[in-house]
Specification:
three-stranded antiparallel sheet; 3 helices; Ribosomal_bL35_CS; 3 strands; ribonucleoprotein; Factor Xa Inhibitor; alpha+beta
């Protein structure tokens, strides 16, 4: 049987922790930092846990 391929877009955006949570980066932390406050850019630097409703679909795309 052929193997299933990992979704290329999902593997760039999400990661699975050791305990099985799906982590994502926050939007808005790529460019145009000049007009964003330092407080805002520090807040955007941290990763977040994906919403529980979305996690099963993302895990399926990652082949987990």
């Amino acid at each position: 049987m052929p193997k299933n391929k990992t979704h290329s877009g999902a593997k760039k955006r999400f990661r699975i922790t050791g305990s099985g949570k799906v982590m994502r980066e926050q939007a808005g932390a790529r460019h145009l930092f000049e007009h964003k406050s330092s407080r805002r850019t520090r807040r955007l630097a941290g990763d977040l846990v994906v919403a529980p409703a979305d996690a099963p679909k993302i895990k399926k795309m990652l082949g987990k």
